[in-house]
Amino acid sequence: MPSKHPVVVYGASGYTGRLIVEYLRELRIPFVAAGRNAERLQEVVERVPGVADTGVYEVAAVEHTVEALTELFDGAKVVLNTVGPFADLGHEVVEACLATGCHYLDTTGEQNWILSAQERHAAGFEEAGLLLAPGIAQMYTTGEIASEIALEQPGYETLDTVVLWKGAPTTASTETIFSNLLSTPYKLEAGEYVAWEGTQLYEVSMPGQHETALTLPWGGTSLPVWYKDDPRVNDVSSLGGVYNRGLMQVVLQIAQAVEEAIRPLPEDQQRAKLDEMAAANAAPMPPREMAAYNRSMDSVHATGPLKHAHVVLRGNSNYKQTALLQAYGALHLLRQKPDRVGFASGCQAFGHRRLLDVLQQYGLTGEPIVVRD
């Protein structure tokens, strides 16, 4: 059945999908809550306070095929995709969006997925005047916001970025971590992709604290991709991690196990073994976020031949940040054209200051701390 509403949240019964639905209700945007299980979707939507009174919605169970998704998206204008791993499941959703004239946004920064989406779909979306914007999420867009603040003044050509967060990963986040483990993470050096060497943890300083943190390339993240052809920037490295050092050690052990036990296998056997390992380490649905506990921190050092800037952006409730960015992206696209069509990041499509204002308006991000010397 074609959509009667302008926005489709695909994967609405997941942790992030539920939060997106809440913000769509806040913004009074009619939506379709879509996924595999209609009963579960109905239960999720009915738990959103006031949705029956202030937001028009429908629930739709759908198979994960281009044909079924195309039928569902017909009549909609924006699709917000939370169903991953995206490198495995994203192309069907993107193809259905292009077939029905829908803008596409998703919540992942899987670098291998973003590069694949760019290669296969960017030209079609640009030709159609549609936005293809993967990776609009706290772990990626907020780092880009901080980077863009540094680049508001000229003279910087290197971005050294770190994102840290405090809280429990969702099931989807865990699946994304495992999906990244079989891909090669890239940074940007002299305008070209260069692979990170080996599997290791990187110790980084934490602004405002004596304690250091452990990080990983985290699949490379989306930032090297967004700055690949930017004339302002030559080098981008992006590291990420959680404040919990013990958990980061576990992630490293899993990554090393993948290198030793799975990567040597024939390619057609790797995915099955990885899925086995992911299932054994699957994260349960985490508790609802609390601002006093769930924190995020983006730190960007921007350097040039003669100058340096350090930008720190602190936030709370990481998944709420992602959900609000998604809901605002939908609102923007329903009311006006994006700043850029085709393959683009959140900041390229909507403006970094505009996205920062939205996060601050809802109390999810503080004032950026900017030091230039």
| E-strand count | 16
Going by helix content, strand content and strand pairing, the class is alpha/beta
Order of strands, main sheet, comes to: 3-2-1-4-5-6-15
Q: Give the termini distance in whole angstroms.
A: 58 Å
Percent of residues in beta strands: 15-25%
Globally, the shape reads: globular
Largest sheet: 7 strands, parallel
Q: Average pLDDT across residues?
A: 92
Round the Cα radius of gyration to an integer and report it: 20 Å
Helix fraction, binned, reads 40-55%
Number of helices: 14
H and E string: EHEHHEHEHEHEHEHEEEEHEHHEEHEHHE
| Low-pLDDT runs | none
**For this entry, what is the oligomeric state of its chains?**
single chain
Sum up the structure in keywords:
alpha/beta, seven-stranded parallel β-sheet, five-stranded mixed β-sheet, 14 helices
Please give a structural write-up.
- The chain is built from 14 helices and 16 strands.
- The model has no long low-confidence stretch (mean pLDDT 92).
- Helix content is 43%, strand content 22%.
- The chain is globular.
- The strands form four sheets. Strands 3-2-1-4-5-6-15 form a seven-stranded parallel beta sheet, with helices on both faces. A five-stranded mixed beta sheet has the order 12-7-13-14-16.
- By secondary structure, it is α/β, with parallel strands linked by helices.
- A hairpin with a 4-residue loop joins β13 and β14 (308-316).
